[in-house]
Amino acid sequence: MSKKVFLFLAEGFEEVEALTPVDLLRRAGINCITVSISDKLEVTGSHGITIKADRIFDEKECIEGDAIILPGGMPGTINLSKHYGLKNVIIEYDKRKKLIAAICAAPTVLGEMGLLEGYKATCYPGFEDKLFGADVLTEKYVNDKNFVTSRGVGTSIPFALKIIEILEGEDTMNNIKNQIVF
Question: pTM for this structure?
Fold first, then answer.
């Protein structure tokens, strides 16, 4: 059975950081579902690109996945951090030690919730002070226990490949790397 991943879209999300994981996970046979946290399917990114999400946020449905992904962007990250239902989903995934992945400024959502305390993490340069209690690194991505964090648009491919490796294994990840000539 295919793994199920929810990727959350807020107004002002970073388009590349959202669509790169969606594309690569789907190539790997992972059911990556885009979820609008607003009351409409159409969500506009930080660079004016509007995409149609697969679903409107439903807390009960979103709790039943194998992983969640938070793309960065501004004001997308701020909008993610203000969504009460999404915070409940994040807490549930952390309790169950399911994969939580965040890129660019989005790791600050986890940091501000206190979830990265004692973990290694990374984020977009200049946001490190919001990764409360984390051991902040400058790697392209950091995987510590059930968290994967990454730095930005330029690290979107390695970030997505790491998620694939965690969910489907190294062979699947290498197959995708070869497919996209990475």
Answer: 0.98
